[in-house]
Predict the structure of Serine carboxypeptidase-like 19.
Amino acid sequence: MCGISLSPWSTPLVITCCCLITRYVEVDEDNGTELFYYFVESEAGGENAPFLLWLTGGDHCSVLSGLAFEIGPFKFVVEPYNGTIPSLEINPNSWTKVAHILFVDSPAGAGFSFSKQPKGYHVGEVSTSLQLHDFLIKWIRDHPKFLSSPLYIGGDSYAGKIVPFIAQKISQGNEVGRRPLLNLKGYLLGNPATGERIDESSKVPFAHGFGIISDQLYETILGHCQGQDYKNPTNVLCAKALGTFHSLLSEVMLPHILWDKCVYSSAGPHAETDDSAGAGRKILSEEAAGIKMGKRLKHPPVRPPLDCINYAHYLSYFWANDERTRDALGVKEGTVDEWVRCQDGGVPYTRDIVSTIKYHRNVTANGYRALVYR
């Protein structure tokens, strides 16, 4: 049986786990692209425990979000940052209580994954999916005791574009007897993107159902936006109605409308701002000067209020950018200058999976299980 215990005085990980492994797998030899991973063995132990490959959203967000903020075995202690490495605590609801989970930073440029050649960062949805499939094959070959484990591919948000593609790729490989035969059982997705126009248009009935927009605005949008591209409407009345809609939608916390609205603590492209954002950046800049890594953060996120659900995201910057944390994780020197939770959109990325619906249909038609939840 695998056990996890906390040790607040030892390493910057503030965690000792006999079953936590962090390493790299090369997925592009020509460009020297290596994907960083965190593997946590199931606390229940045994090869028969489900094996889950977990991806996070983004498209260039670190999988640390899944590990420390969602389904992993530990989480940040939410307390005011005091210049030392943020502490971790056990997550009593970790999925690793019942499953082995392989968390992967993907694509190159996300988290601690990197490429030695600039060309290695020029990937897209299809090439990223193929790299992750290659990653999984190589990892299983290096850890053959998990070959018979029931395999599931999972992720949330933008990973919804990648997971069904990988599941189909594995299914196709198994059909033709490609070795190693992976024991795929299904896939699961939380609040996934699909690439369909419905991704955008479905926001309207959702917002109406939760009382964010009025019956009148809802009917106006339905009346003027039939057949329109909700991102680029050509109908003037539709565009005006959608403008009002997005203005109202901006007043709620998009990840969860019941949360208090506060700034995102991220340097990513979707970071929200309010009147406190400038002050928050100034304060963080001052705090960053005292970080034990000996250098100031180049891309400091906004510091949200302590009672904001995103405060733990803010703490993650100080944890992941401390040299002692990097040493403990085995991060290769000179590969990632500064860890950010989500890239700011400056990394090339081709959106070449127009829709994932066909992959969902193909995989489920072959009898594999699927769980899609919000």
About this structure: The chain has eleven helices and 14 strands. The radius of gyration is 21 Å. The first strand starts at residue 4 and ends at 5. The chain has two domains: 4-197+348-373, 198-329.
